[in-house]
Amino acid sequence: MTAKILDGKKLSKEIKEKIANDIKALQKSKGIIPGLAVIIAGDDEASHVYVSMKEKACESVGMYSKSFKLPGTITQEELLKIIDELNDDEKIHGILVQLPLPPGIDERMVNERILPSKDIDGFHAINHGRLFLGEDSLIPCTPKGIIELIKYTGVPISGKHAVVIGRSNIVGKPTAMLLLRENATVTICHSKTKDLTSHVRSADILVSAAGIPNLVRGNMVKEGAIVIDAGTRVVEDKLVGDVNFNEVEKIASWLTPVPGGVGPMTIAMLLQNTLKAAMMK
Ligand code: ADP
């Protein structure tokens, strides 16, 4: 079997076109232009690249965006003050704080300061909690994009065995929760899992988000599985996932490339969440 490529670039483009139309309609009916504020502190190169991609994406769909490029010496208090101002800013519907933050700043405290209704990353405890309860909420962008990609295959998720590698609050845990919501039987694997291969081998749907290049090899994957590679590591200036693409391509039915799979979907979901936040007003 040769896997079909799950093209996140193509799907995200389709989603962005729909978002652009919805923004035009929202502007017409209610006079609202969705606005996103992006805060970045310090000069981590990869983070600056992500922020400029997000700015460009906003522009491409007709969204308003405002960036705060802060020095790495910013204090927590100063950062919280900016968030307070953005919470009160009528033109801003979504607030995103690019991680990682400089040392000495408490990421959780910063996330908790953003109004849940403007928390388009879905990292506030209220939004995590709503996701856990199965209530409507702002859902973290990468997990949301992963589910969209799986749905795009047309293969039903219900009743399938889904294995998620990684239990981070940003990717692994919320992805597992969303798969559960779609009625999959879900296994979460992590760094203390014994015999990763035995779990992965029975996965109809495999999502890997460990950030370990070459973690998922061809001989671990079930014939015909859907494989989503959400790993992001920069190796020699190149973005690499967790999955050995050449090996797994011969076994899986569907496979996401890196780059061009989960990454573009994350940005499309960020725009979708900002639009949703603006529409909730
Ligand atoms: P992200 O938030 O991008 O998913 P993190 O680095 O925060 O990435 O989390 C990596 C996750 O991968 C952790 O939950 C960790 O337990 C998991 N992990 C790391 N090594 C392995 C491994 N060998 N097998 C399975 N899971 C692993």
UniProtKB/TrEMBL annotation:
Q: Which UniProt keywords apply?
A: Amino-acid biosynthesis, Histidine biosynthesis, Hydrolase, Methionine biosynthesis, Multifunctional enzyme, NADP, One-carbon metabolism, Oxidoreductase, Purine biosynthesis
Is Amino-acid biosynthesis one of the keywords UniProt gives this record? yes
What molecular function does GO assign, one term?
Answer: methylenetetrahydrofolate dehydrogenase (NADP+) activity
Ranges for domain Tetrahydrofolate dehydrogenase/cyclohydrolase catalytic: 6-121
| Reactions that this protein is recorded to catalyse | (6R)-5,10-methenyltetrahydrofolate + H2O = (6R)-10-formyltetrahydrofolate + H(+); (6R)-5,10-methylene-5,6,7,8-tetrahydrofolate + NADP(+) = (6R)-5,10-methenyltetrahydrofolate + NADPH
Any one of the GO CC terms: cytosol
User: Sorted alphabetically, which InterPro entries does this protein's record hold?
Assistant: Aminoacid_DH-like_N_sf (IPR046346), NAD(P)-bd_dom_sf (IPR036291), THF_DH/CycHdrlase (IPR000672), THF_DH/CycHdrlase_cat_dom (IPR020630), THF_DH/CycHdrlase_CS (IPR020867), THF_DH/CycHdrlase_NAD-bd_dom (IPR020631)
Q: Which residues bind NADP(+)?
A: 166-168, 232
State one Pfam family annotation.
THF_DHG_CYH
Database matches in SUPFAM superfamilies: Aminoacid dehydrogenase-like, N-terminal domain, NAD(P)-binding Rossmann-fold domains
Residue ranges constituting the Tetrahydrofolate dehydrogenase/cyclohydrolase NAD(P)-binding domain according to the UniProt record: 140-279
Gene Ontology BP annotations:
L-histidine biosynthetic process; methionine biosynthetic process; purine nucleotide biosynthetic process; tetrahydrofolate interconversion
- Functional note: Catalyzes the oxidation of 5,10-methylenetetrahydrofolate to 5,10-methenyltetrahydrofolate and then the hydrolysis of 5,10-methenyltetrahydrofolate to 10-formyltetrahydrofolate.
Q: Which family does it belong to?
A: Belongs to the tetrahydrofolate dehydrogenase/cyclohydrolase family.
HAMAP family from the entry? THF_DHG_CYH
Listed under subunit, the entry gives: Homodimer.
According to UniProt, the name of this protein is Bifunctional protein FolD
Organism the protein comes from: Thermotalea metallivorans
